[in-house]
Every structure is written in C-alpha cells, then in structure tokens.
Write a structure and sequence with these properties.
Length: 391
C-alpha cells in the first residue's frame, strides 16, 4: 500500500475525456510528461505535433497561436511576453553584428530605444527613414540592410504610410519587412494581402485590442514562411521567452469579441475626431480616416473594411502653452492619464513632439493622443468639452 502523499501525486483517477465547453481548457506546465523514452527523443519542440516542455507550447498556447493566425491571415505564430518583446525577438532573430535595420521616423518609441541601446552595443546599426516617403526608404536600403520595420499608422502622429509601395521596395531589394500591426489588429486590413503585397512578419501587441481589458501584456509574431518562422522560433526558444497560461486564457476569452469591440472603439474615435475638427482650440486632427490627415489615401487603399481603430491625436493651437494643455488633460474625468490602449477605459497622453521627432515634425502646438474606451460617446464628448473650457 502506497502512502497517501504518493497517492495524491500519482492519483489513479482520470476524468472522462470529451469535456467540451465554449472556452478551451487552460493547461499549465513547465514539465511535460512523455509516455516513453522513444517519445522523449523523437518529439520536435519546433513542431505542433506534440509537446516537449511548457516553454515550447501547451494546448492552451497552441490554440491561441492558431486563432491569431486566423485573425491575421498568417500560417505560423510565436507568442512573446509583451508587444515590445515580440519586436525585440524579431530584431534578435534576424540581425547580427555588421547588419543594419531601417525603422520609420514615427516608430513606436521603445522600439527605437532598443535600436539605440542593445542593437548599437552589439554592432547592429539603424537608420530612421521618412515614414511617408517610399523614395527615402528605397534610398536608405544598402547591402547591409537586413530588416525594414513598417508601422501603420505611426505611433502617436497617426500618418498612414504607403504600405503597398514600401513592401514592394523591400522585396525588390531582397530585404525582409516586418510590420507592427498593433493598430490594424488583423481587422482593419490584411497584412499578408495588401493589394497583392504581403509583409514577411506581422507583430502585434496583444496587450491592446486582442486582450481588450488593459490587464494583460503579450505579443505575437506571425509569418507565412516556415523557414522564417523557425528562425524566430529558434531565437524564442534560446532566449527562454514564455507566456503565462492565465494570460493566454484571458486573451482567448477576449478574442471572440474583438471585432465588435474594434468597431465600437472606431465609431467613438471617428465621432470625436470629427467633433474636434470644429473646435477653435485645435489646428489639426490626426486620424487616418479623415481626409485632411496625412496618408488618408493610403489608409483608404489598404483598409478595405473602412475601419480605423479607436485612436487619434489632436494638435493644439500654439497659443496654448504646455501648461495649459497639461491642465486640459488633468481636467478630464472619464479619459484617464495612462499609456497603452485597447481596454474599456478611454485614455489620454500629451506628447512633446519636438523632443520625439525633432525638426521633422511640422507643428508648434502640443499634441494630445486619445484612445477610445467603450464609454458612451456623448459622455466622452461632454468630458472633452468641459476640459477644453478649462484650458
Ligand atoms: C503598445 C505597443 C507596443 C508594445 O506593446 P507592449 O505589450 O506594451 O510591450 C508595440 N507597438 C505598438 C504600436 C504599440 O502600440
């Protein structure tokens, strides 16, 4: 007779198979148990045919990966611990000493910081190209260029680039191009079929719309080329990047409603962006669906669904000082001060563009970025109006 302690660990009861429910089960493991040594030796951690170690995949992570492939139109997916770690993994997988990477001048800030920090220290150079100039991108590609990052629209400044032409340029020069697809989320456009052109890699901060709650940090790297996927998956394995099963569960819980939420965020964003256009305090509203916003024609060409996420920025007239604009932000009640986006709570962040973009930024006034939550749009508009009166 075995001891109770042993029996509790090696318990003979197995629940019946075939449990089916709307939500997939949550499997947690570092150790994966093999039936025999032959299985232990033959299983390939790179393939989804079996399980080898928690870090390399569980039924829970495989399920999310496959659903994200469906969302984005990709074939393979790697999960990372944040959107930024997904970006970093792509950089590390594809670049070595002596290589160069090109990033747009409106790139997500921390991605630029990584280029200036670790990548430079490792002998990997980078150049910023004009996000709205395919000619500038083409001119900067050299025989050192191994990776081009695209982002649509630009973080904070919302310019929508000519993605189709830029992908065409990269491929004509044999350079891999990766898109930060967090804004599009796989819904506004298909990164793997933009009027016949396909990016090689699509990265998303699942932290945003796929999570939808402001409570999870995760990233994904989607590809359609097995060899490219295996390069990234190899680096992912060697760096030991993992995601928590409970976080994966949260994203799986949110994914079924992503399209509905995206549409709702978009509707409010567009209503408020249009409203801001009539306000005398504001010199420009930056939202790709607005005719006067930079790159509107490229947004229209690529986003067949006519969708545009729930983000926009406004530029205050230069007669408003930084302090006055900060006071406007502090006076908001429903819009909370905070980074990130994609959750139920509307958020606001003032940005000092002169410092971020230098002389490439045309405006003198302060920029404020809004991300729409799911509150009623009339309440959000009233909140903006009362805060503008206080500025
Ligand atoms: C938020 C964001 C990221 C990074 O995502 P984290 O999960 O916060 O690391 C990357 N790119 C864009 C465009 C983002 O908005």
């Amino acid at each position: 007779m075995r001891d109770k302690t042993t029996e509790l660990i090696h318990h003979p009861y197995l629940p019946p198979l075939g449990f089916t429910a709307p939500q997939p089960g949550v499997f947690k493991a570092s150790t994966v148990i093999f039936p025999n040594v032959a299985a232990m030796h033959s299983r390939d951690w790179r393939q989804k045919a079996g399980y080898t170690y928690g870090l390399h995949g569980t039924p829970t992570t495989f399920t999310l990966e496959e659903r994200l492939c469906t969302l984005e139109g990709g074939l393979q997916c790697v999960l990372a611990s944040s959107g930024l770690s997904a970006i970093a993994l792509v950089d590390m997988a594809l670049l070595k000493t002596g290589d160069e990477m090109l990033i747009p001048n409106n790139v997500y800030g921390p991605s630029k910081a990584l280029s200036e920090g670790e990548l430079v220290a490792w002998g990997i150079s980078h150049q910023l190209y004009g996000a709205m100039s395919p000619a500038d991108l083409a001119a900067r590609i050299s025989n050192k260029t191994r990776l081009v990052w695209l982002e649509a629209p630009g973080s904070v400044t919302m310019e929508f680039p000519d993605l189709v032409e830029m992908v065409r340029i990269c491929h004509a020069r044999g350079v891999i191009c990766a898109l930060d697809n967090t804004w599009g989320a796989g819904l506004a456009f298909n990164a793997f079929d933009m009027r016949g052109e396909a990016v090689d890699i699509s990265v998303q901060a699942l932290t945003k719309y796929p999570s939808g709650g402001g409570d999870v940090l995760m990233g994904s790297i989607i590809t359609r080329d097995e060899a490219l996927h295996l390069r990234i998956k190899g680096t992912h394995m060697r760096m030991g990047v993992g995601v928590g099963a409970n976080d994966v569960e949260t994203v799986l819980r949110s994914l079924p409603s992503i399209a509905l939420r995206y549409e709702a965020h978009d509707r409010s964003g567009r209503a408020l962006a249009e409203w801001f256009q009539s306000r005398p305090e504001i010199v420009q509203v930056l939202h790709p669906a607005l005719k006067a916003s930079p790159g509107h024609e490229h947004w229209k060409a690529v986003c067949h669904t006519g969708q545009a996420a729930g983000l926009f920025s406004v530029v205050f007239h230069e007669r408003y000082s930084v302090d006055q604009v900060n006071h406007f932000c502090d006076s908001l009640n429903l819009f909370k001060l905070g980074y990130s986006w994609g959750g139920p709570v509307s958020l606001v962040v003032p940005y000092n563009l002169a410092a971020m973009r230098g002389t490439t930024w045309p405006h003198k006034g302060v920029l404020v970025r809004f991300s729409m939550g799911l509150e009623a749009v009339a309440d959000l508009q009233a909140d903006l109006a009362q805060a503008l009166d206080k500025a």
